[in-house]
Amino acid sequence: MSGEVDIAIIGGGLLGLATARAVLRAHPGASVAVLEKESRWGAHQSGHNSNVIHSGLYYAPGSLKARLARAGGEAMIRYCEQHGVPVKRTGKIVVATAEQQLPRLDALAARGRENGVTVARLSRAEIAEREPHVAGVGALAVADTAMTDFGRVCLALATELTDLGADLRTNSPARSFTTSRDRTVIDTPDGEVRARIIVNCAGLHSDKIAEAAGHRPPVRIMPFRGEYAEVRPARRGLITNPVYPVPDPELPFLGVHVTPMLDGSVHVGPNAVPALARQGYRWRDVDVRMLGELLRDPAVRGLARRYWRYGIVEISRSLIWPLFVRDVRRLIPEINGEDLRRDGSGVRAQAVTSTGELVDDFVISRTQRAIHVLNAPSPAATSSLFIGSHIAADAFDRLGLADIARTVRESATGS
């Protein structure tokens, strides 16, 4: 395909692919290239997560995140059903394991109802009836939760994009950016791509891509690794549907949860520990250059001052296996260390402000020729089809196609 395109999307995860889909469905005459540095689609965050389609329980009522999660989750379920991707409406329970967590649980229930989520308060006896091996003093039953395989969703999107005429390129990192008249010229191993608009959906590398494209990002990406364990086959029957703890409202993480997957396996996790490389899936994955940059960054020093106690707890739980098992036993007391085995990890791109605060909201920076998605926290996977529409509308605005942009926004929840 020609190197001249209207829109070049950097990053072939859920958001990049969903944005390309939204563009081409709204404007079939547009030319779109998707550049992915890995050899497959959804190779990082999109393919290394809990595979949960979230309900919208956690987000501030009336916020874009809440609206996107509610309708976006339903849209994702429909997409999976239409494209042969495994999906199952499972529901979940959020469990308070101590009396002092009950006020937070009640606040979460009120928030969920305001967001239109179907929730029911469970007593200790009702928890035992629903999940007899789970311990808790109270819980919320959340009906509007489902499971899928987001890696398979990425493959379905790529197949659809091929039919829509997109130029899909794996093994094509964006190595540098220059400007030529009204185009941004992207150097790739397959040659130059000359785009009127670039959309940066590079996840773990999104801040670096923004800098390379001449934009100073307002946040810094800090990689956090989430480690998982798997319940051994003989003990998988201890739970039937996802079980979550009450989250800490001070942190943008949901805590270690227990999730039966669609293939019959049961995963436990993730925790949240600082990764030592942007693709640091193991402790031995170390990027000395990145660490040097982070140690010199005031944002990271501020992060350490704010969250050092939490960091010590998480790192200890990662390195000392009995501590991880102890936390799981708070939810399922019958679990022991022999029932669990380590089972991979994912790395989350977490935006940090200049003062060291963890950002729990979308961060999208826009310039005349570029859109940089610099933070896409949960429910980004759940809501990726609608988020892609919002990004596509921004791109149409920059192409001077205001009517199409307006139509796309009106069709996306939260407009």
UniProtKB/TrEMBL annotation:
Metal-binding as UniProt keyword: no
Molecular function per GO: (S)-2-hydroxyglutarate dehydrogenase activity; L-malate dehydrogenase (quinone) activity
Parts of the chain that traverse the membrane: none
Keywords assigned by UniProt, alphabetized: FAD, Flavoprotein, Oxidoreductase
Major enzyme class: oxidoreductase
GO cellular component labels: cytoplasm
EC numbers for this chain: 1.1.3.-, 1.1.5.4
UniProt KW Translocase keyword: no
Named cofactor requirement(s): FAD
Domain FAD dependent oxidoreductase: 6-392
UniProt feature coiled coil, ranges: none
Family indicated by similarity: Belongs to the L2HGDH family.
Protein name: Malate dehydrogenase (Quinone)/L-2-hydroxyglutarate oxidase
